[in-house]
Design goal:
This protein has 10 helices and 8 strands. The protein is an alpha/beta fold. Helix 1 packs across helix 3. The two termini are 32 Å apart. The structure holds S-adenosylmethionine (SAM). S-adenosylmethionine (SAM) binds next to helix 1 and helix 2. S-adenosylmethionine binds at residues 3-6, 23, 27, 46-48, 51-52, 70-72, 75, 93-94, 110-112, 115-117.
C-alpha cells in the first residue's frame, strides 16, 4: 500500500494555513503532555509542516535536539521555511529512517500511523531508533462519533466522489485505540497505553475556512471539479451538519478528539 495523505506543494501551503487551525492545539497538548525535558533528543515522525516539532523545541533546551522526518518534500519545505535552524528536517519514509539505532529519547507522531503502508513496520522502526527506555507517543483520530468536523467532511467528500471512499476511510480507522495498541505490542513496545486527547477549536467564519481547509487535503482536487455554486452548496451542507457547534454571531466551537498512544522501548 502506498503512503497516504500525500499533498502537492500548493496543498501543503493550505495545510499550514488552514489544517493547522485544528492540528496546532493537539500538537501543543501532545508535546507538553510528554516527559520531554532539557537535553532530550526528539523525533517528530511524519512531521508534515512540523507543528509538533515547533512545540518541542522550547522543551529540549538547553542541550537537546529535535528532528522532523516525513516522506513528503512539499510538507518539509514549509517546515524548513517556518522553523529555520532549530529543527533538523529529513525526507525519509517511516519504515526506513536514516538514523542510527538508539538515537532518540522520544518519538512523537501526530496523525501519521493510519497513513503508513505498514504500521507495524513503522512502529518497529520507531523502536529501533529509540534509546532503551525511550518513549513513543502517537495519535490517530478517535472515530466514529468523536470528531464531528472530520467525520462529516469525509462523508460529504465520499458522497461527491465515491471513488474517494477507501482513501477517506483510511484517515479515520474504526477502533483506532485497538489499532494503536496492537501495532505497538506487535512491534515489541512495553507499558503500552491509550488515552483520549481532546481540544476545542474556534472558527469565526466557517464556510470559507471549510473550503480552504478541504483544499489542503488529499481530497482537495475533488473541490476543483465542482462549480462555484457546487462548492457553496457543499459548504452549506457541511455547516448544516455541524450546526449544533455554532453560535449565531459568534462562530463555531468544534471538539477534536484523538486516541493517544504512549509506549516504552523496553530496557
Ligand atoms: C495528517 S498529516 C500529519 C502531519 C503532522 N504530523 C501534523 O501533525 O501536522 C500526515 C503526514 O504523514 C506523512 N506520511 C504519510 N506516509 C508516510 C510515510 N510512509 N513515511 C513518512 N511520512 C508519511 C504525510 O506526508 C503527512 O505529512
Amino acid at each position: 500500500m502506498p503512503s497516504g495523505f500525500q499533498l502537492a506543494q500548493r496543498q501543503a501551503q493550505a495545510y499550514e494555513s488552514f489544517t493547522r487551525t485544528f492540528m496546532e492545539g493537539s500538537a501543543q497538548l501532545l508535546a507538553e503532555g510528554t516527559s520531554i525535558a532539557a537535553g532530550d533528543v526528539v523525533l517528530d515522525l511524519a512531521c508534515g509542516t512540523g507543528l509538533v516539532a515547533r512545540h518541542v523545541v522550547p522543551l529540549v533546551v538547553p542541550g537537546g535536539r529535535v528532528v522532523g522526518a516525513d516522506v513528503n518534500g512539499a510538507m518539509l519545505e514549509i517546515a524548513r521555511n517556518a522553523v529555520a535552524g532549530e529543527v533538523e528536517w529529513v525526507e525519509a519514509p517511516c519504515d526506513a529512517l536514516p538514523f542510527e539505532d538508539e538515537t532518540f529519547t522520544h518519538a512523537i507522531c501526530q496523525q501519521g500511523f493510519q497513513f503508513f503502508p505498514d504500521p507495524i513496520a513503522a512502529m518497529s522502526e520507531a523502536k529501533r531508533v529509540l534509546c532503551c527506555g525511550g518513549v513513543l507517543v502517537a495519535t490517530v483520530w478517535a472515530t466514529p462519533g468523536h470528531n464531528p468536523y472530520i467525520e462529516n467532511q469525509l462523508q460529504l467528500l465520499a458522497a461527491v466522489d465515491p471513488s474517494l471512499s477507501d482513501s477517506v476511510a483510511r484517515s479515520t480507522p474504526p477502533n483506532a485505540d485497538e489499532f494503536l495498541l496492537s501495532a505497538a505490542r506487535s512491534a515489541g513496545f512495553s507499558d503500552v497505553a491509550v488515552s483520549l486527547l481532546e481540544h476545542t477549536v474556534e472558527i469565526a467564519d466557517f464556510n470559507p475556512w471549510f473550503l480552504a481547509q478541504t483544499g489542503g487535503t488529499p481530497w482537495g482536487p475533488t473541490l476543483a471539479t465542482l462549480t462555484d455554486d457546487g462548492r457553496r452548496e457543499l459548504a452549506d451542507k457541511m455547516a448544516a451538519r455541524i450546526s449544533e457547534y455554532s453560535t449565531p454571531g459568534v462562530g463555531h466551537r468544534i471538539p477534536f478528539r484523538s486516541y493517544r498512544l504512549e509506549a516504552r522501548r523496553p530496557d
